[in-house]
């Protein structure tokens, strides 16, 4: 569902904005609208994407990176998704990378998404989070997502630490 909303700011001018239920929008439309509205330099976004991807996912096996899965099915969409997710969202500087990754670990734990959690557990460790901080976030989420989800997440954390030789 897409609708137009006319707002009247305090300076008495009219401003028309889009409101949408994002899951119903095709990703390509959302991506194009985002870049057009933001007026960003595509080269700068590509640079941020590479830098952030290296920072977060350098310790993740190539076959486990979602980008490679996306590319298998649609190379252009994979590029667009990577530019938006890694170059725009993950590269934002409103909160530190450590905080961003701990929030991501919490969300993925509650949602019980172990494959994505594995990626972001690597990312959290890569940006300087400690295994104790990650475990504490997982324990905290057990209140909201349940003990089984927390147990799954702790298993993922243990596996990642073993892969990295840090357990």
UniProtKB/TrEMBL annotation:
<dbReference type="Pfam" id="PF02627">
    <property type="entry name" value="CMD"/>
</dbReference>
<dbReference type="InterPro" id="IPR029032">
    <property type="entry name" value="AhpD-like"/>
</dbReference>
<feature type="domain" description="Carboxymuconolactone decarboxylase-like">
    <location>
        <begin position="77"/>
        <end position="159"/>
    </location>
</feature>
<dbReference type="InterPro" id="IPR003779">
    <property type="entry name" value="CMD-like"/>
</dbReference>
<dbReference type="InterPro" id="IPR052512">
    <property type="entry name" value="4CMD/NDH-1_regulator"/>
</dbReference>
<protein>
    <submittedName>
        <fullName>4-carboxymuconolactone decarboxylase</fullName>
    </submittedName>
</protein>
<dbReference type="GO" id="GO:0051920">
    <property type="term" value="F:peroxiredoxin activity"/>
</dbReference>
């Amino acid at each position: 569902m897409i609708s137009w909303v006319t707002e009247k700011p305090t300076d008495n001018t009219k401003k028309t904005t889009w409101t949408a239920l994002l899951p119903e929008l095709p990703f390509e439309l959302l991506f194009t609208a985002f870049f057009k509205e933001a007026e960003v330099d595509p080269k700068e976004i590509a640079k941020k994407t590479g830098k952030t991807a290296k920072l977060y996912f350098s310790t993740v096996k190539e076959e486990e990176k979602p980008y490679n899965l996306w590319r298998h099915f649609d190379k252009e969409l994979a590029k667009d998704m990577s530019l938006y997710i890694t170059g725009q969202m993950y590269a934002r500087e409103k909160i530190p990378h450590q905080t961003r990754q701990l929030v991501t670990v919490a969300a993925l734990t509650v949602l019980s998404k172990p494959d994505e959690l594995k990626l972001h557990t690597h990312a959290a460790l890569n940006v300087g989070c400690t295994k104790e901080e990650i475990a504490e976030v997982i324990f905290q989420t057990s209140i909201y997502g349940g003990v089984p989800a927390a147990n799954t997440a702790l298993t993922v954390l243990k596996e990642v630490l073993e892969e990295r030789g840090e357990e």
